[in-house]
Amino acid sequence: MAYASTVFNQLLNFVPKQHFNAFVRQHEADRYVKKLTTWNQFITLLYAQVTAKESLRDIETGLLIQSEKWAHLGVRSVARSSLSYANNHRDYRVYEQLFYEILSQCQGIAVRKSFSFANPLYSLDATTIQLCLSVFDWATYTKTKGALKLHTLLDNTTMMPEVIVSSTGKIGDVTAGKAMELPLNLKQGSIVVFDRAYIDYAWWNELDEKGIYFVSRVKTNMAILVMGQHDVPQGSILKDERVLIGENNGYSKVLRRVRIIDDKTKTVYEYVTNNFKLNGTQIAEIYKQRWQIELFFKWIKQNLKIKTFLGTSQNAVLSQIWVAMIYYLLLAYIKFQTKFPKSLLELTRMVREVLFVRRSFIDLLSLDSRTVHKFERPPDIQLKMF
After folding, report:
1. pLDDT tens digits for 347-376?
2. Does residue 77 lie in a domain region?
3. pLDDT value at position 99?
4. Looking at 230, 262, 278, which one is the last position of a domain?
5. What domain range includes position 260?
6. Is there a domain that residue 64 lies in?
């Protein structure tokens, strides 16, 4: 019978180890380390992520029970004291850089969604993770509450996060959005859609000067001066106007305001944009696409371990979050490469149940949550790796 490594080992084979080692050297993460290397720490955190472990003791117990199956991974220590120290002191930026390295691999094979326009489309938003301020004293939000924010730029054509920036809850959405330096990182002609939390006229002007389009909702207290009609309203479009917003506010150019009515709910929505090329229906559709980033946040909160943490320090929390996002990318990469027809959620559940089974990953992909119990015999087919 042909030998096959465990599903976990095959999952780790998708990690670009050469780049990982370079990041470790850059941050001197393995300096003075005797047993629990950064690679071992990553394996342990990824194991905790896949199996949804609740505590360091759960991780230690789970791995000790499976000791005969993970010895081939090269893990030399699973002591919770060693893992706790590593999480608190080993630079989380190793995992942050690894995330972006794997992201670049995913972007090359991602399935791309098409729209009625050729412009690259991105959604910008943030999600808040509530934390107890008395335990996570670095995560300032209010006087009595703590929180961590994940500010994300989502590529709507691939449903992959383009940029993720973490901050405490105290940092405003638009402040973090400006820190992403979108005018420098996006191609001319790109469209960024965001909600009213990102209304900053000077920043809008910066986007406009770099050839980046934006679409946002209109605030009720915005001082808007109508300059004329841009296009003849039709269908659900009530108005399509050329407007100026206030005075001496950092944006003196003409903008476009599109007012649309939802035929089902009869709710009226108003959008403002610097794009005068697309029609009003397309502008409304672009803003509807912002909902995709809300679905992305919902998915990672429900299916990744990013709401409860294995440590209380900022470094421990960010290490866990970046490893969680790496796991998301690894699953997405496998789904893209193999054209796995079922959902990412089903793949997540299947991997969790067979993590230490010695069987080729490619066989797992031919099953589903109802037939995964047949996952027993080890064949000889392996997936293409980085």
Report:
1. 999 899 888 888 888 888 877 666 666 665
2. yes
3. 97
4. 278
5. 195-278
6. yes
56-65 and 80-89 helices, crossing angle to 10°: 130
- 135 occurs within a structural domain: no
- Domains contained in the chain, number: 2
Distance from CA of residue 360 to its chain's centroid? 28
The Cα 233–Cα 240 span in angstroms is: 6
Does residue 272 belong to any structural domain of this protein?
Answer: yes
Among 119, 43, 55, 50, which Cα is nearest to 309's?
55
Structure tokens of 249?
């506010």
Residue 190 CA: distances (Å) to CA of 54, 117, 295, 352, 367? 41, 11, 21, 38, 39
> What are 24-71's pLDDT values in tens digits?
999 999 998 888 899 999 999 999 999 999 999 999 998 888 777 776
93-151 residue pLDDT tens: 999 999 999 999 999 899 889 999 999 999 999 999 999 999 999 999 998 999 999 99
pLDDT confidence band for 234 (50 / 70 / 90): confident
Domain boundary among 278, 296, 327: 278
For residues 21 and 94, state if they share a domain. Answer: yes
Contact between residue 91 and residue 315 where contact means Cβ atoms under 8 Å apart: yes
